Amino acid sequence: RRLEDNLREKDQTISILRAQIMSMEEEQRTAAESQPASRPMVVTAQPGMSDEEYRYQYQSGFDLFQNRQYREAMQVFESLLASRTDHSLSDNAQYWIGECYFAQSDFRAAVLAFEKVFTFENSNKNEDAQYKLGLCYMRLDDRKRAREELQSFLDNDAYTNTRLRSRAQDLLSQL
């Protein structure tokens, strides 16, 4: 339990630092552009924010993701995690960080992000994260690990998404 607490603290520190770096990079890009008003607004979380504000900013991060603005979306999700990890959407924010890395073909970073989803108690994203781990290892051409992750997905009776289960079976049969 103590190790999990230490891991969460370190993850929060890393999230804060990443958010700061991304914010600084964003400021540099904005300053270099001739029309900074054309850049999408990226909201960042503040410590102690309300449940409503957390949800609003989570939705803005999700909207950025859907608009393929992955770096900006990651900044929002990292910032949310830096502000608090006890919110009901914290595990989802962690999951979408993994999706952002995946969408940018940074599969090693995606693996790390998806694995962090499992550190959240009772996460509703475990099933999706487990499936995505298998996909990441396939993209990394690590057939052995891909096989292990997909088989682990199929062996878990708690994972009931039939669409993902049939996809995992298809992928496993290709390995």
Helix/strand structural class = mainly alpha
Main sheet properties: none
State the order of secondary-structure elements, H for helix, E for strand.
HHHHHHHH
Say how many strands there are.
0
What Rg, in angstroms, do the CA atoms define? 17 Å
What does this protein look like?
With 175 residues, this protein is mainly α. The chain contains eight helices and no strands. It has helices spanning 2-32, 51-66, 70-83, 90-103, 107-117, 126-139, 143-155, 162-174. It is globular, with a radius of gyration of 17 Å.
Summarize the structure.
The protein is 72% helix and 0% strand.
Question: What layout of secondary structure does this protein have?
Answer:
Blueprint lengths: L1 H31 L18 H16 L3 H14 L6 H14 L3 H11 L8 H14 L3 H13 L6 H13 L1
What brief labels describe this structure?
175 residues; mainly alpha; 8 helices; 72% helix
